[in-house]
Amino acid sequence: MFSTKSAKTAPVQSRIRVPQLYYRQPVISRLVSRYGLSVNITAASLISGNDNDGWFDVELQGNPQQLAKSLSYLQGLGVDLVQLGIAGNLHKSENSQPFPIRDRSINQSESGSLTSQWQTQFQHEIFSGQANRLRLQLCILKSYYQKPIISELVSCYGLTVNITSALLNPDVEDDGWFDLELWGRPQQLSSSLSYLEKLGLPLWVESACCGNNNLIE
Questions:
Q1: Residue closest to 179 by CA, chosen among 74, 44, 82
Q2: Three-state DSSP class for 79?
């Protein structure tokens, strides 16, 4: 039997520039759910409310057909592929932009208390089936920079994940963070949060709500 896994090529690295128009679209999530790729975000700068376009440095892995279709999808959206190359052979682009300065202590205060378990009210809403969307801030510890955590939330737990803000700089000794919207069934949300907790990643739940989800695929 033909094995898709064995047919995977060497990882392809690309810098994806995301215009403001697509800040509310789960572009990275769709690369996983629609095209079956494994996507590791190795660097990111996406600041909501900022006039500049955001960007992700991503490592894409899949078979040639999956890669070709996913790159066509990105180009069809008008999302710029600033850099593209085989892993290990990607050079810095003149179009690279500096990382913005982020005072996370302010955001943490606004988002709520750091918890090792989710706040009780959100737990209740999830388990009672009253919530199918979560907004949270996730801290990516330096030791997890090479693990495709966002990709696994999509592929393993069936969620749609929209990244609304992000800062991940592999060139400094600092942790990164993502502001995420997670869409899915209550059990999927519950399982995904348990997964993040088991990894030991700090997270701040900002809100949980129920509503029609136009992003679920």
A1: 44
A2: coil
What pLDDT, in 10s, does the model give residues 178-216? 999 999 988 898 899 889 989 999 888 887 776 554 444
CB 129 within 8 A of CB 61: no
Query: Token pair of 210, please?
Result: 């129920």
Q: Rounded to whole angstroms, how far apart are CA atoms 41 and 141?
A: 13
Other Cβ atoms less than 10 A from the Cβ of 65: the count is 12
Torsion of CA 191, 192, 197, 200, to 10 degrees: 140
Q: What is the pLDDT of residues 6-24, one digit of tens each?
A: 466 678 888 888 887 777 7
Which stretch of DSSP H or E encloses residue 186?
helix 186-199
C-alpha R_g of the chain: 17
Are the C-beta atoms of residues 60 and 84 closer than 8 Å to each other? Answer: no
- pTM higher than 0.85 for the full model? no
- The number of angstroms, rounded, from the C-alpha of 137 to the middle of its chain's C-alpha atoms is 11
Inter-CA distances, 59 with 54, 147, 151, 194, 214, Å:
17, 11, 11, 25, 27
